[in-house]
Amino acid sequence: MVVLADENEKIDLYSVALFTGNQIKGVVLIPTLSSRLYRLFRRIVPQTGRFAAVSLLVMFLAGCAVYANKHLNDQYGEPQVRDRQIAVLTDEPEFHRDVKPIVDSRCVVCHACYDAPCQLKLSAFEGIERGVSSSIVYDGARLRTATPSRLFVDADSTEQWRDKGFYPVLNERQQSPQANLEGSSFYRMLAMKQAHPLPEGKLLPEDLLVPGSFDLSLNRSQQCASIEQFDFFEEIYPQWGMPYGLPAVAPEEFSTLKRWLEIGSPVKPLPPLSQPLLQQVESWENFLNGSSLKQKLTARYIYEHLFVANLHFPDVSTDPLKPPQYFKLVRSSSPSGQPVQTIVSRRPFDAPGRDNFYYRLVSVKTTITAKTHMPYWLDAARMQRWQALFLDPDYVVDYLPSYDVELASNPFVTFKQLPVGARYRFMLDEAQYTISGFIKGPVCRGQIALSVINDHFWVVFVNPDEAKLNEVSNFLASEADLFKLPAGEVEKLLPLSHWRNYSKRQQAYLSTRELQLKKLFPDGQQASLDMVWDGDGHNRNAALTVYRHNDSATVTKGLVGAQPKTGWLIGYTLLERIHYLLVSGFDVYGNVGHQLMTRLYMDFLRMEGEANLLELLPNDVAQRELEHWYRGAESEVKQYVDFLQDREESNYGITFTTEQPKHELFELISQRLGAKVVAPDPINRSITTVDPIIEQMQRLAQLQGTVLTSLPEQALLRVTRVGSPHRLFSLVRNVSHSNVSSLFAESYRLIDEEQTLTVVEGVVGAHPNVLISVAETLLPEFIDQFAAMDGEEDYQRLLDNYAVRRTDPDFWQFSDWLQGYYQQREPIVSGLLDYNRLENR
Predict the structure, then answer these.
(1) pLDDT digits (tens, 9 = 90+) for 393-427
(2) What is the mean pLDDT of residues 21-49?
(3) Which tens digit of pLDDT belongs to each residue from 298-334?
(4) Which one-letter DSSP state was computed for residue 565?
(5) What is the Cα–Cα distance from 705 to 206, expressed in whole angstroms?
(6) From the CB of residue 514, how many other CB atoms can be counted at a distance below 10 Å?
(7) Which residues contact 708 (CB under 8 A, 6 or more apart)?
């Protein structure tokens, strides 16, 4: 059913939903003032009041939906789930061979992960067959935890998805060419765009009072019309065909999709895994399912850290033009050699519900998208490494820890029998993956977590000194209560007392840690560059750069960009807590209390990482930096910052020779890590170059302040060349805040004068906001115009000259080049970029 309302009617609509018991299946709220039906009802029944008008409208449209359903049933029979699998390929279109390449490049760029509109996940055939739901995963106001709807996890069949409220986009009535088109909202969405193409090269109207307008906001209302509702939807929004807000698919692509739908949407089962892959799977499953307590506890630790990874086997040769086959690590009730029976749980540390279970590897069936892709390789060297870290050392595991949530959510209790050094080294070996866990994590939109970090900062790690880490192990065991995380409090709303309790607990931990450090460093010389891990001279995970792009972020190896305002020095306890707070312990279906507590607890972890770095600076310098980083912070935060500043003078092992100690410290850290760990940054450090394009990019990277205000946070700039391959650069605008310690009123904490720009060759980020294409010969002119910008009008003129807008007739041509470039340049790291955040400017 479609409900039409303007923004002022939302309370009435909710009242109607409550009045009807919220039992109407497939309700869609479509906010609009332009609906002819809605205007008619307002004219007919003005005296009855808004509630009555909306109530009558609901009943009227409900009757229309019933009529449409009866009409379809009379023509094509009752809907029922269809078996679409075929055994033998023919000349007719088949999903994997003919359709999936089109769907990936034209549809998955918006329909993947939890933020897929209407949960229509088109990255696998099973997602298309599952269909749509009007339930919203990203609901920041829900008071109760939602029921998960994870594809391949929370239901095993299309029938089960129907029972969970998902309704089809493919025809499930009589299977005839006409019925398969008329009864498919998938087809009708595509046909709408063919009939109503976008105005080429123009901005799309976003005012819903204007016919043909669009809502392109990230949190727009979901328009999830079922096939029974589709006539009404099409009458109201004829311009909203698919791809939504983007050009239509090419005629030949539309023809292929139409024919595939006409013949019943056939799909051939994927071929079995190759023998080399099966051998790798068997080898790793054997390793992870050892019988000793030490093996079992080690496997649990590995699983709880790698459950979000896309695992692959570089030892198995693959076609270099294609991505490797990826796998997920799951818990199964069935052993190796039998079909996987996944144990479903919200979080990896939830109880498996049985004593005997097995760690298994299952093939990833979905298209790889950049916003969720976190590759992690498994090879012979990795297995030897884990054997040396966890299994070879002489220690005893004499029991398996509980899965009680209060204990299982605290890794310092659960894994206290495993050596701390092994745990820390495990995470450091692939620190980019570890940090990406909370940047990308088990979700694909992270504003709750990401609003707690600055737009650009560097991360380095505490040196994993084995002797000292062994002593730390006893400290962790004795002070485990100080490390309790919010994971066990998912159903609680957040009073201010929770924040204060976390603050007191964190302060107690820091005080206790200070005493522990005095025992470990009785001469007081702990504050030296020796504290910083050098990557063992070769591991590029030792230095990372983090970019926040509003509600998404990127982690790259190295110290990239100009020196940032802040930085983090992360040790084992902090790294582990970040993972269990924002990855293992975060539930995207959790209620508002869970999400707020997670966000606020992360405040302390950020401040701890920053304070660790400031330990390397003299006290007076550290205090000035903290005051600068927390300008205008709330009183509770200021009190905590004051606690961090209240430390004893250290006997520093660093001699500063300039009047810019922080700048000098970053340089010293870079020198300690060396060129094998930290690659040079020729663009943002203005290194002398003979490359004329890099010279121009250096000019661009020097821009800062208000000239950048109109630029979105992620821009991709293609430099086209005649006779040579085109080049691509990411322009990352680093927004500056007075502080990032508040959930609200972020716009009031922005400081435009402190904005900076980082320019990186290649792709940074998964959600580009604007696409730009400039001929090499026009690059100086482009940068001149860019540097002269003074407000939105100037930015619009820049885009008029160089942007590839949503309505550009060459949009898909540019997109195909972009996605292909990324795949060829970064065959393992890359995935399809997401277009949900493309601007309309």
Answers:
(1) 999 999 999 999 989 999 999 999 999 999 999 99
(2) 41
(3) 999 999 999 999 999 998 866 766 789 999 999 999 9
(4) S
(5) 29
(6) 11
(7) 733, 752, 755, 756, 757
559 alpha carbon, distance to own chain's centre:
22
Closest to 232 in 3D by CA, of 39, 36, 96: 36
Two tokens at 449? 């977590």
Instruction: Give DSSP secondary structure letters for 702-765.
Output: T-BGGGGTTS-SEEEEEEE-SSS--EEEEEEEE--BS-S--SS-GGGGB-GGG-EEEEEES---
Alpha carbon of 534 to those of 203, 529, 531, 543, 678: distances in Å?
50, 10, 9, 9, 10
Token pair for 669: 């850290």
| Matching residue, tokens 């750069």 | 545
Quote the CA–CA distance of 326 and 280 in Å, as a whole number.
12
Q: How far is CA 715 from CA 113, 271, 633, 763, 816, in A?
A: 22, 39, 31, 10, 17
- Residue with the two structure tokens 């606690």: 643
Q: At what angle do helices 420-429 and 293-306 cross, to 10 degrees?
A: 40
585 Cβ neighbours under 8 A, 6+ residues apart = 347, 349, 409, 485, 486, 487, 598
Burial 250-287 (b: 16+ CB within 10 A, else e): eeebbebbbebbbbbbbbbeeeebeeebeebbeebbeb
- Does residue 737 or residue 508 have the better pLDDT? 737
Work out the number of other CB atoms within 10 angstroms of the CB of residue 460: 29
Contact 170, 130 (CB under 8 A): no
Structure tokens at 227: 């096939």
pLDDT(30) > 50 = no
Taking the C-alpha atoms of residue 308 and residue 148, their distance in angstroms, rounded to an integer, is: 16
d(CA 39, CA 28): 18
- The C-alpha atoms of residue 439 and residue 432 are separated, in whole angstroms, by 10
Report pLDDT digits (tens) over 589-598.
Answer: 888 777 777 8
Q: How many helices and strands (H and E) does the chain possess?
A: 29, 14
Condensed to tens digits (0 to 9), the pLDDT of residues 36-79 reads 444 444 444 444 454 555 455 555 555 566 666 777 887 888 88
Cα-trace Rg, the chain: 28
Q: Name, in order, each residue with C-beta under 8 angstroms of 402's C-beta and a sequence gap of 6 or more.
A: 408
DSSP 123: T
432: helix, coil or strand?
helix
Say whether the peptide bond before residue 243 is cis (omega within 30 degrees of 0): yes
Question: SS3 for 28?
Answer: strand
- What's the per-residue H, E or C state across 398-414? CCCCCCCHHHHCCHHHH
Instruction: Give the integer Cα–Cα distance in Å for 383 and 295.
Output: 13
Calculated CA dihedral for residues 627, 633, 636, 638, nearest 10 degrees: 10
pTM: 0.90
Q: Which candidate, 305, 286, 391, places its Cα nearest to that of 349? A: 305
CA quadruple 448, 452, 454, 460: dihedral, nearest 10? -110
Q: How far apart are CA 830 and CA 323, in angstroms?
A: 9
Dig out the tokens for 312 from the structure: 């692959």
Here the tokens at position 90 are: 């023919």
Q: What is the pLDDT of residue 284?
A: 98
Residue-wise pLDDT tens digits, 85-138: 998 889 999 999 999 999 999 999 999 988 899 999 999 999 999 999 998 888
